[in-house]
Amino acid sequence: MSGKVQQIKVHTEGGVVTTAETLMVVVPNNDFLEVTASVQNKDIVFIQIGQSVIIKVESFPYTRYGYLTGKVKNINLDAIEDPKFGLVFNVIVSLEDNYLSTKHNKLPLSSGMSVTAEINTGMRSIISYLLSPLEESVTESLHER
């Protein structure tokens, strides 16, 4: 197996490790990368395996370098607590390519890069989007306490 060491757990020479402790994480060469995306609890019901995903790599501004495409591969069934967003579900996205293409070359990606995943969950008209707060307040105001 050939690959790159991504994480090393023991940094000291002669350091002691316990049984079954992970020493390092190795990312194999020539293996397709996957993205682990966090989806908020309120949005998870709209995500399905096989949905198309657009991946924007933070290191390469998408307006200049474009974006990657992928598909939802797996949806974790257990929510985890995120300090910023509350309950989130991890969604695994498989990428179609391990590089961004420009006119002249291919820019390789590496494990650990920050990305933004955009999962298309449907379309809405602009008027529907603008009127939804009004519709919600009217619906809520018609209920008796």
TrEMBL record:
GO terms for cellular component: membrane. It is found in: Membrane. GO terms for biological process: protein secretion. Signal peptide: none annotated. InterPro entries: Beta-barrel_AprE, MFP, Secretion_HlyD_CS. Residues 33-122 form the AprE-like beta-barrel domain. The keyword Membrane applies. It is a single-pass membrane protein. Keywords: Membrane, Transmembrane, Transmembrane helix, Transport. It comes from the Bacteria. PROSITE patterns: HLYD_FAMILY (PS00543). Belongs to the membrane fusion protein (MFP) (TC 8.A.1) family. This is Hemolysin secretion protein D. It comes from Vibrio parahaemolyticus. The gene is hlyD_1.
